[in-house]
Amino acid sequence: MKRARGLDAGLTHYGDPDFARYLRRSFARSMGLSTQLLDQPIVGIAMTPSGFNNCHRGMPELVEAVSRGVLAAGALPRVFPTVSLGEVFLNPTSMVYRNLMSMDTEEMISAQPMDAVVLIGGCDKTVPAQLMGAASADVPAIQLVTGPMMTGRHKGQRLGACTDCRSFWQKFRAGAVDAAEIQQVEGRLSVTAGTCAVMGTASTMACIAEALGMSLPGTAAIPAVHADRLVAAEMTGRAAVALIGRPIRPSQVITTRSVENALRVLMALGGSTNAVVHLTAVAGRLGIRIDNGRLNAISDETPVLVDLKPVGEGYMEDFHAAGGMGALLRELQPLLHLDTVDVTGRTLGERLAEPLDWVDHQVIRPFADPVSKVGGLIALGGSLAPGGAILKRAAATPALFEKQGRAVVFSGLDDLARRIDDPGLDVTAEDILVLQNIGPQAAGMPEAGYLPIPRKLAQAGVKDMVRISDGRMSGTAFGTIVLHVSPESAVGGPLGAVRNGDLIRLSVADKRIDLLVDPAEVARRLQDFVPPPGPARGYKALYRKAVLQAEGGCDFDFLTQAGAPWTR
Ligand code: FES
Predict the structure, then answer these.
(1) Are residues 98 and 204 both part of a single domain?
(2) What is the Cα–Cα distance from 132 to 502, expressed in whole angstroms?
(3) Would 484 be classed as within a structural domain?
(4) Segment 479-523, tens digit of pLDDT
(5) 359 in a domain, yes or no?
(6) Residue with the nearest Cα to atom 3 of ligand 1?
(7) SS (H, E, C) 506-559
(8) Ligand 1: does its nearest atom lie under 6 Å from the Cβ of 335?
(9) Which residues pair with 380 in a beta bridge?
(10) How far apart, in whole angstroms, are the C-alpha atoms of residue 423 and residue 463?
(11) Under a CB-based contact definition with an 8 Å cutoff, are residues 79 and 115 in contact?
């Protein structure tokens, strides 16, 4: 039987399909659409503008350009809104709402009549949520990102959100920058529409979407305000129409092999730790598991090639000008699976066989002359993190890679805020800071794993210390920071058993984080463990009940593909 398409697809249930079709067409006419257009196939455009999302400020123009492309290619564009997540406007953290947005996206794609869909997102959680939703809906889909911001200037220095936000704040805390200057900097960090200007989570996820094959080639890094971003939007609209004639579903694009390609790209970018959680969640929707051993093998084989902040020097606008993802993928070619298929229907091998017009090897280094010989991220095991943890070694201090120290423990965010700057805090630069109870269930896993250096140490010139938590950190942050410790403290993980003065050992060489306390004593301490109370109602109660630990991508257990091995 011929599949219904356009307005005839997925009719509303009235018990009379012909009536439902007639009513739908009549109501569609009320939007001023001609009969000719009502007969066309439909491309849905998931748009996410919001007065609480600066990163999506360019959305109206992008929607218009995608619509133009769809119309020019002979289909009917239908724009629909979904949840939008602006990173810095959400409490307690945008991470709590990523799954909500993914559910909204999946259900609105599935419930409404569309033959293909363009997903427009950009800020940190939006692209993961859209990819998760699209993977589950499995309607032909293309991701378009809003693109990165341009840099600002301050006293001759380029500034980009948000690595420079953090370095200036660190200087302010240390007394090297005064209140007047930090206020000036505040106005010079985020100067255009678009996502953070460095290789933070948003940019990493944009590159990952392209590496997976879910975005048009060459579109990940185009600056938000560049005319080429609008051209990319128009071409995305056209490509979505082409997908209707030759359906390629997300499940054909996101495969074990394309996920491995995406991991390679993540390592070569020196990309965000958050991308591990998000990619795990996207892959998990299709039953693909990211194993920590495989992640480490890929990391050890894949050099960091992109010299951008927070790991290196440049900004996203430099990456784009240097050749962007096309140039990076060509450097990585020997390590990639070339038979993966993207949303245009081409294999990666076919894409990379085309000549490249330009690469700036200052920004995208040759494979033989990398920024670092090994990948940016590693997974850790060990007695403190039996379910795993993540360290961004590319943004860490090599002198701290092999470190044993005394734990200075904070029991949660309130405790941290109360005591971190206390002049009487018993802490030295040789200690290891531990923050408990910021994991997925306890706190929604906020980006609070980037614990500040205690003020008295910062003022004494200490720039980095080993810091450990069950939370996340921003992709724009840096330091020797162990994140995503699993199981989290709030479900009885060993992190919750750490006490002031315990010894902890980090070994990057062995990829371990260990609590040097007799296991019997750890078990005894955990016997007294009582899970903290959670929210009683609403979405947050659902979140608390259903969220998986970091190794499950913090997805909801009922959203991962049935039978996935980490579904509890
Ligand atoms: Fe949106 Fe950084 S705040 S990408």
Answers:
(1) yes
(2) 40
(3) yes
(4) 999 999 999 999 999 999 999 999 999 999 999 999 999 999 999
(5) no
(6) 87
(7) EECCCCEEEECCCHHHHHHHHHCCCCCCCCCCHHHHHHHHHECCHHHCCCECCC
(8) no
(9) 389
(10) 18
(11) no
How far does residue 274's CA lie from ligand 1's centre (Å)?
A: 13
If one counts the domains in the chain, the total is: 3
- In the block, tokens 């499950």 appear at 552
- For residue 283, give both structure tokens: 């892959």
pLDDT tens-digit map of 45-57: 999 999 999 999 9
Give me the pLDDT at residue 285, please: 97
The rounded Å distance from CA 205 to ligand 1 centre is: 11
Task: Count CB neighbours of 171 within 10 A.
Answer: 16
Angle between helix axes 95-111 and 538-546 (nearest 10 degrees) is 100
Question: How far apart are the C-alpha atoms of 20 and 199, rounded to whole Å?
Answer: 48
* Location of structure tokens 């359906």: 247
Task: Using the atom order of ligand 1, give the atom closest to the CA of residue 476.
Answer: 2
Residues 463 and 484 in one domain: yes
**Rounded distance between C-alpha atoms, residue 23 and residue 12, angstroms:** 10
The closest of 131, 443, 135 to 275, measured between CA atoms, is: 131
Decide if pLDDT at 162 tops 90.
no
Residue ranges making up the domain that contains 19: 1-39
Q: Which two tokens stand for residue 239?
A: 């490509």
Looking at residue 568, what is its pLDDT?
41
- Collapsed DSSP state (helix, strand, coil) of residue 298: helix
Q: Specify whether the backbone of 409 is left (phi greater than 0), alpha (psi in -120 to 50) or beta.
A: beta
Non-local (6+) Cβ contacts of 512 within 8 A are 380, 381, 382, 505, 506
Q: Is the CB of 146 under 6 A from ligand 1?
A: no
Residues 84 and 124 in one domain: yes
165/170 Cα distance (integer angstroms): 9
- As to burial, measured by CB atoms within 10 angstroms (0-12 exposed, 13-18 middle, 19+ buried), residue 414 is exposed
Contacts of residue 499, Cβ cutoff 8 Å, sequence gap at least 6:
407, 409, 525
How far apart are the CA of 347 and the centre of ligand 1, in A? 31
Identify whether 162 is preceded by a cis peptide bond (ω within 30 of 0).
yes
Helix count (H) and strand count (E) of the chain?
A: 21, 14
Average pLDDT, the chain: 96
How many residues are there in the chain? 568
Pairing relationship of beta strands 116-121 and 42-47 according to DSSP bridges: parallel
